[in-house]
């Protein structure tokens, strides 16, 4: 494949940032971005610009991350293209007013409804590890919602940042959408502007800075951060499947994945067979090793290489698999280390690389205790075992998302809402959630003139009106002072109507049987 021409990285002139934001805000106030057809047109143009720039994106991801062609297509280019196609097919339905739920009969005449309105002018700050998907993914959601937007790609993937700038400038309305490139000074200048929402993907440290700055102007944020994500392999897990799937979670993008497992808690009984299966699977995936394979990426830069290498060097554990490093290539082999305790350097911090520490355990209960003590709100969680074990672990370990008997899969479903909890993030996106995160759900009611006689009860003087008001508004409790349900006439009528079933499905099953 011939190399695509990529412009050298160039930061945006900071002086132009305020006027750029003002231009986008003026465009939003003009109502230009709100119509369905305008949004669809922008999304469709973006689709073809991504398609046209595919060779450049392949080259850029190779330069920035040593990313394999397969991974660039599947997790970057095709991901965003498919996201656009899905959203354009669904957008008309998402934009429609919703009938408000749980409305009493007397209030239905006011036509209560939920209108979906764009938040305004938003800032999207992308990440370096998936520099296309994690930049364009939320940006697509902002366009779909009818917002104007600034995209700030990560300077740690500079080649991709320049291609993204070309994609946006060649396809989208410049008065509504733009790319601003740069590093800390440019990001700081952007955060000094007033936004209607900020969407940030990256580290917890920078996420905290973004949240603090946004709080100064009560700007809402969506933060997609990371965590020390646990995987647990019980004695009842399938060691072959667990090995293959755990490896996939760490081989993808050379482990530079915010929700992949940071450490693995393995029952001592199954540990020898799991390690053996890890060696077998790794040989199958990379017959000649990871370093010579076109299917294994590289660490983004020297700083991250040194950070990951230091974690490995400082560990007191025993290297079971891998361990090779090459600073000249920013290469770190997939390295599996058996550690002795939770204070090991490979567990106390998020590796964000191809390191997989294994800590032996004696029970599911111990695994739960360790997982909750290492990080109480990780971004991902991966329990391997039988149904009773995995249900118990899901119930007692909190996480932003989880995949049972596999790694990462909940984050690989484009239409499934993805987000963190606690200090691993707030808010969610992908699929419908990408539209929702940039949308204000505006409650609206319309009061017709003919109901004025009914509304007289709300006007002063109030004397003698309280009982009339309560007749139409008060709900009678179906519980007593001890918190017990009162099974009155309404309960038994409903019970008989349902034939003892808890739902319509239960009724049908009883009728059939």
Describe the structure.
This protein has 19 helices and 18 strands. It is of the alpha/beta class. It starts with 16 loop residues before the first helix and ends with a helix. Helix 2 (36-52) packs antiparallel against helix 5 (133-145), helix 3 crosses helix 4 (69-95) and helix 9 crosses helix 10. The protein has helices spanning 17-29, 36-52, 54-65, 69-95, 133-145, 158-171, 184-191, 204-215, 239-251, 271-285, 302-314, 345-348, 364-374, 387-396, 432-437, 452-455, 466-473, 489-497, 504-512; strands spanning 98-99, 113-118, 121-125, 148-152, 177-179, 197-201, 221-224, 230-233, 263-267, 318-321, 325-326, 331-332, 335-338, 355-361, 380-384, 401-402, 425-426, 439-444. The mean pLDDT is 94. The strands form 4 sheets. A 7-stranded mixed β-sheet has the order 10-13-14-9-8-15-16, with helices on both faces. A 6-stranded mixed β-sheet has the order 5-4-3-6-7-17, with helices on both faces.
User: Structural class from helices and strands?
Assistant: alpha/beta
* Largest sheet composition: 7 strands, mixed
Kindly, what is the distance between the CA atoms of the first and last residues, rounded to a whole number of angstroms?
64 Å
User: How many strands?
Assistant: 18
Low-confidence parts: none
Mean pLDDT: 94
Give keywords.
513 residues, 14% strand, globular, 19 helices, alpha/beta, seven-stranded mixed sheet
């Amino acid at each position: 494949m011939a190399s695509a021409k990529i412009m050298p990285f160039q930061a945006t002139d900071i002086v132009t940032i305020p006027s750029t934001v003002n231009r986008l805000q003026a465009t939003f106030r003009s109502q230009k971005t709100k119509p369905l057809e305008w949004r669809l047109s922008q999304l469709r143009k973006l689709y073809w610009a991504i398609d046209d720039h595919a060779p450049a994106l392949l080259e850029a991801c190779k330069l920035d991350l040593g990313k394999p062609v397969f991974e660039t297509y599947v997790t970057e280019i095709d991901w965003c293209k498919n996201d656009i196609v899905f959203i354009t097919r669904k957008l008309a339905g998402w934009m429609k007013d919703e009938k408000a739920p749980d409305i009493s009969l007397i209030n239905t005449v006011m036509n209560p409804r939920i209108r979906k309105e764009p938040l305004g002018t938003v800032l999207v700050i992308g990440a370096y590890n998936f520099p296309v998907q994690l930049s364009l993914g939320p940006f697509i959601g902002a366009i779909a919602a009818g917002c104007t937007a600034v995209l700030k790609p990560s300077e740690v993937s500079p080649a991709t940042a320049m291609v993204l700038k070309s994609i946006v400038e060649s396809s989208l309305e410049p008065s509504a959408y733009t790319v601003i490139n740069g590093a800390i000074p440019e990001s700081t200048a952007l955060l000094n502007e007033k936004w209607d929402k900020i969407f940030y993907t990256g580290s917890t440290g920078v996420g905290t800075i973004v949240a603090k700055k946004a709080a100064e102007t009560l700007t809402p944020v969506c933060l997609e951060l990371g965590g020390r994500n646990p995987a647990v392999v019980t004695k009842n897990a399938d060691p072959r499947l667990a090995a293959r799937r755990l490896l996939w979670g760490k081989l993808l993008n050379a482990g530079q994945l915010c929700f992949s497992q940071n450490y693995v808690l393995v029952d001592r009984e199954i540990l020898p067979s799991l390690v053996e299966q890890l060696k077998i699977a790794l040989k199958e995936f990379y017959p000649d090793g990871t370093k010579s394979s076109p299917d294994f990426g590289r660490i983004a830069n020297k700083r991250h290489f040194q950070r990951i290498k230091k974690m490995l060097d400082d560990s007191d554990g025993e290297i079971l698999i891998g361990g090779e490093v090459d600073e000249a290539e920013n290469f770190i082999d997939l390295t599996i280390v058996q550690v002795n305790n939770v204070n090991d350097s490979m567990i106390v911090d998020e590796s964000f690389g191809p390191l997989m520490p294994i800590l032996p355990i004696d029970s599911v209960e111990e695994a739960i205790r360790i997982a909750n003590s290492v990080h109480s709100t990780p971004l991902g969680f991966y329990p391997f075992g039988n149904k009773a074990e995995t249900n118990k672990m899901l119930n007692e370990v909190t996480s932003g998302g989880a995949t049972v008997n596999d790694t990462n899969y909940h984050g690989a479903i484009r239409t499934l809402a993805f987000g963190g909890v606690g200090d691993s993030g707030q808010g969610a996106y992908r699929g419908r959630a990408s539209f929702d995160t940039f949308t204000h759900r505006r409650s609206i009611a319309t009061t017709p003139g003919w109901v004025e006689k009914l509304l007289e009860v709300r006007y002063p003087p109030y004397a003698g009106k309280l009982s009339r008001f309560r007749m139409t508004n008060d709900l009678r409790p179906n519980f007593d002072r001890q918190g017990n349900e009162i099974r009155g006439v309404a309960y038994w009528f409903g019970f008989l109507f349902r034939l003892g079933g808890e739902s319509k499905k239960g009724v049908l099953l009883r009728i059939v049987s």
